[in-house]
User: Fold GntR family transcriptional regulator from Gulosibacter faecalis.
Amino acid sequence: MTETPPPHADAVVHGKSGEQVTEWLRRDILEGVFVPGARIRQTDLAERYGATRAPVREALRMLAATGLISHVANAGARVARLTADECAELYRVRERIEPLLLEYTVPLLTPDDVAELRRLANEMSHTDDPELFVQLDREFHDLTYRPNATILLAQTVRDLWDRTQHYRREFSRKVRSFGDQSADFDHQLIVNAIERGDTDEVGRLIELHIRRTRLSLVAHPEVFA
Assistant:
């Protein structure tokens, strides 16, 4: 996590686009610089990213469309927050659509991709740092979805991941501190199935993987406090 502006910000001029500001703000939300419920002021963002108000407004509009930002009457923009039930609903959607996405993407993964997935899975299994685990976990799953084989599914999955990122981080801090490594076993099994090219097994494993996390999140309501 970083409390400093994006590394590009010192070179930013007034012509910066809304897409650039959107990606910087998205990154800051995912890294926990701005937490759920935090008020987002346009003037602060303009100063942070070295941009004018116009691209900042566009960024807020774009992230509101994905569910990361909410607009509250008489309170302005805030980082969206989820209740336990809302988070569980998003996880249920993921349980249904991620196996379908992997039907498209797994056949496109290369031996180098599989080797990188194995490296990430091994590194996750050896870290006690929940922040590093969440980062590696996101890299792992992003890699399985990376091939541009769909017009809708991959972006939908990415948006669902983004909306639950904060709660997954808080959950990982609690669970990994007690030595729960069930996610690590899942990752190894997923890589094995990908290596065999068994998309049906990959789909079953990812559905179980997501379901286990959903049930564990529901069992820890304090994550949503």
User: Anything to note?
Assistant: Strands lie at 39-40, 69-72, 76-79. The radius of gyration is 18 Å. DSSP finds nine helices and three strands in the chain. Residues 7-14 have pLDDT under 50 and may be disordered.
